[in-house]
Amino acid sequence: MSDTTTRTISNERTEQEIAEETSETESATTCPECGGNLVTDTEHGETVCGDCGLVVEEDEIDRGPEWRAFDASERDEKSRVGAPTTNMMHDKGLSTNIGWQDKDAYGNSLSSSQREKMQRLRTWNERFRTRDSKERNLKQALGEIDRMASALGLPKNVRETASVIYRRALDEDLLPGRSIEGVATASLYAAARQANTPRSIDEMITVSRVGEMEMTRTYRYIVRELNLEIQPADPESYVPRFASDLDLSDETERRARELLDSARETGLLSGKSPVGLAAAAVYAASLLTNEKVTQSEVSEVASISEVTIRNRYKELLEAEHDLTAA
């Protein structure tokens, strides 16, 4: 067969395919009975003819976005699915809960016998949610992580990361010989540092149920065994929180960052506590911008001593002076 003949057959096949696609498109947008235009009724999930009223398709799935909701009740009414799975719950949120309201589907109060029955059902439901000791351990730990994260004002992504770290430690049998609270505190501390929203050890100990020695020992053990990649804490990551708690201006926060940049160039940050450097930078910046903040106020916010602030802020000012003079 010659090239001319092959090219002719190919062109004919292409024209035939185009004609079939065109006819399918037209049939999808026109009524098969009268040829009128089809209209999609999203409220009833139907496709009907705008001229004769023929229902072409019904029970369609609406794949569009959710409707806007302005409160919890509207969101519940318009939601098509349940809550997404989350690592912050021991069963990842796939189980069901029996509500605490003693009311039926119509909002009427239950009788005393029915209330007792519902209470028994809640008790057994709570027992069945944790099948073994491992799940009970995980449930207690995740509750502890959520409690500490709420007290420290940590965002949801940090809680999720801490839950994943704890699950890994539990799966690799790192908990024997260590308390649930200690591993939970260490997981949350590691997650906060990974998310670049660190909290100091003193802050963690304040909300935790374990001591500093147990928490730091467990933290080092988990990081080593799980091979977690955690960078050294940057003093600048503490500055926004300290400035916000002290109600300082953006100019003061920017000036504190500049002081820390100067200290980094001169090598002053090496071997010093990032929390102390951040607090000293905020205090020094408040002096340079004429904002009235006392050392005791900064000390209370940062949970460090006033002596540390006095020593570090002088070093920061000297480092900036030396860098400017050079």
UniProtKB/TrEMBL annotation:
Zn(2+) binds at C31, C34, C49, C52. GO terms for cellular component: transcription preinitiation complex. Gene3D superfamilies: 1.10.472.170, Cyclin-like. The keyword ATP-binding does not apply. This is Transcription initiation factor IIB. Stabilizes TBP binding to an archaeal box-A promoter. Also responsible for recruiting RNA polymerase II to the pre-initiation complex (DNA-TBP-TFIIB). Sequence repeats lie at residues 143-226, 237-318. Residues 26-57 form the TFIIB-type domain. It comes from the Archaea. The keyword Zinc-finger applies. InterPro entries: Cyclin-like_dom, Cyclin-like_sf, TFIIB, TFIIB_arc, TFIIB_CS, TFIIB_cyclin, Znf_TFIIB. SMART domains: CYCLIN. Keywords: Initiation factor, Metal-binding, Protein biosynthesis, Repeat, Transcription, Transcription regulation, Zinc, Zinc-finger. PANTHER family: TRANSCRIPTION INITIATION FACTOR IIB (PTHR11618:SF13), TRANSCRIPTION INITIATION FACTOR IIB-RELATED (PTHR11618). GO terms for biological process: transcription preinitiation complex assembly. Belongs to the TFIIB family. Residues 1-32, 72-94 are annotated as: Disordered. Residues 84-94 have a biased composition (Polar residues). One of its GO terms (molecular function) is translation initiation factor activity.
